[in-house]
C-alpha cells in the first residue's frame, strides 16, 4: 500500500486523493491550512496548531466540518495508517466546490485533507554555518487586507518573496511590513540577539503567530534570557549580534548573512546554538 491521505472523512491512496476543480480552495485560495510535526510518534504542539487552524477558519468565516477532537483523531489515524513516527503533517481545509463566482455561500462540502509524509529539511551543515538570506522588496500583506495571522491557502504574498530569494540565489527572504518594519520570512519567523537579549517583531507587525516562535520565546525566558517583542528595522538586523529563524519545518535555524552583510561572527552564535539544543531537547521530550 502506498501513502494514505485523509480526505473528506476517509483514508484513500495518494493517487485517489483528489478534489473538485470547482473547489474554491483551488479557484481562489479560499481555505486554511496548518503545518505540524510529529517527533517520535507524538505530535508536537498539537493544541496550538489546532487552535490556529480553527482561528484561521473563523477569520475567513469557514466552518470546519469536524470538531477539534475529531480532527485530532483523524490526524492520529492518518499517521498510524502510514506507520509514521517522525513526520510532517499538512492539514488543509478548503471552502468546498461551488460555482465560478467568489461567493462562499454558493459552495458546499468543505474538504478536510490530512497529508502525512517525510519532512524535507535544510542540510545539517546549514544549522552550523547559518543561512544567507535577503530582505526583499515584496512587503508582507497589509493586516487590513489579509491578516498574516490567518494561515490561508493564499500564499502568493510569500511565494512572490520566495521568488525574490531564489533570484538572489538564497533560500529565504525577510519581508518588511507596510510601515517598513521587519515582518517575517516566507515560511519562518525572525529573531535577533542584541546585547544578550532576544528580540522579535510583535504580532502587530503583521506576522503569523508562529508556534515555534512561541516555544522559543518560552525556552529563552526559561533560560533567563530577556525576550522582547518590538518593531525591528533593517538596520537592527544588520547590527544584530545573532539572527535566527523559527518554523515548524526549519525548527531553529541560524542566519549569518543578510543582504550580503555578515551577521555577528558569521557563524551560529552562542545563544542561537543554545536555543537550537534546547529546542531539540523539547522535541525529544514533549508530551504533545
Ligand atoms: N510565518 C509564516 C508565513 C509561515 O508560513 C510559517 C510556517 N507555518 C511561520 C511563520 C512559522 O510558523 P510555525 O512556527 O507555526 O511553523
Domain unit count: 2
**Count of discrete alpha- or pi-helical segments spanning 4 or more residues:** 8
* Gap between N and C termini: 28 Å
The kinds of small molecule bound in this structure are: 4'-deoxy-4'-aminopyridoxal-5'-phosphate
Task: List the main descriptive attributes of the protein structure presented here.
D-amino Acid Aminotransferase, Chain A, domain 1, 8 helices, single chain, 6-stranded antiparallel beta sheet, 2 domains, alpha+beta, 288 residues
Task: Break the fold down into its secondary structure elements and pairings.
Elements: E1 4-7, E2 10-13, H1 24-28, E3 31-39, E4 42-43, H2 46-59, H3 68-81, E5 87-94, E6 112-117, H4 126-129, E7 131-135, H5 156-167, E8 172-176, E9 182-185, E10 189-194, E11 197-200, H6 211-222, E12 227-229, H7 234-238, E13 242-247, E14 251-258, E15 261-262, H8 270-284
Parallel strand pairs: 7-8, 7-14, 11-12
Antiparallel strand pairs: 1-2, 1-6, 3-4, 3-5, 5-6, 8-9, 10-11, 10-13, 13-14, 14-15
What do these coordinates show?
With 288 residues, the chain is an alpha+beta fold. Strand 13 and strand 14 form a beta hairpin. The chain has eight helices and 15 strands. Strands 7, 8, 9, 10, 11, 12, 13, 14 and 15 form a nine-stranded mixed β-sheet that branches. The model has no long low-confidence stretch (mean pLDDT 97). It folds into two domains: 4-117, 2-Layer Sandwich (D-amino Acid Aminotransferase, Chain A, domain 1), CATH 3.30.470; 126-285, D-amino Acid Aminotransferase, Chain A, domain 2 (Alpha-Beta Barrel), CATH 3.20.10.10. Bound molecules: 4'-deoxy-4'-aminopyridoxal-5'-phosphate. 4'-deoxy-4'-aminopyridoxal-5'-phosphate is lined by residues 35, 158, 184, 187-189, 208, 210-213, 246-248.
Amino acid at each position: 500500500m502506498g501513502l494514505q491521505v485523509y480526505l473528506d472523512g476517509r483514508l484513500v491512496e495518494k493517487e485517489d486523493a483528489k478534489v473538485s476543480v470547482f473547489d474554491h480552495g483551488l479557484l481562489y485560495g479560499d481555505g486554511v491550512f496548518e503545518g505540524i510535526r510529529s517527533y517520535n510518534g507524538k505530535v508536537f504542539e498539537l493544541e496550538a496548531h489546532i487552535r490556529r487552524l480553527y482561528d484561521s477558519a473563523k477569520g475567513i468565516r469557514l466552518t470546519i466540518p469536524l470538531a477539534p477532537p475529531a480532527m485530532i483523531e483523524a490526524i492520529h489515524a492518518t499517521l498510524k495508517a502510514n506507520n509514521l513516527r517522525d513526520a510532517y503533517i499538512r492539514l488543509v481545509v478548503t471552502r468546498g466546490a461551488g460555482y465560478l463566482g467568489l461567493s462562499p455561500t454558493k459552495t458546499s462540502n468543505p474538504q478536510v485533507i490530512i497529508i502525512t509524509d517525510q519532512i524535507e529539511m535544510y542540510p545539517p551543515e546549514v544549522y552550523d554555518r547559518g543561512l544567507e538570506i535577503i530582505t526583499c522588496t515584496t512587503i508582507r500583506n497589509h493586516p487590513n487586507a489579509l491578516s498574516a495571522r490567518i494561515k490561508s491557502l493564499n500564499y502568493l504574498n510569500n511565494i512572490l518573496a520566495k521568488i525574490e530569494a531564489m533570484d538572489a540565489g538564497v533560500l529565504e527572504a525577510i519581508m518588511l511590513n507596510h510601515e517598513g518594519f521587519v515582518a517575517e520570512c516566507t515560511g519562518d519567523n525572525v529573531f535577533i540577539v542584541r546585547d544578550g537579549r532576544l528580540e522579535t517583531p510583535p504580532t502587530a507587525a503583521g506576522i503569523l503567530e508562529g508556534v515555534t516562535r512561541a516555544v522559543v520565546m518560552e525556552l529563552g525566558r526559561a533560560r533567563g534570557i530577556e525576550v522582547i517583542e518590538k518593531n525591528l528595522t533593517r538596520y537592527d538586523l544588520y547590527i544584530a549580534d545573532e539572527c535566527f529563524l523559527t518554523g515548524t519545518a526549519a525548527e531553529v535555524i541560524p542566519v549569518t548573512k543578510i543582504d550580503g552583510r555578515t551577521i555577528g561572527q558569521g557563524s551560529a552564535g552562542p545563544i542561537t546554538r543554545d536555543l537550537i539544543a534546547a529546542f531539540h531537547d523539547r522535541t525529544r521530550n514533549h508530551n504533545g
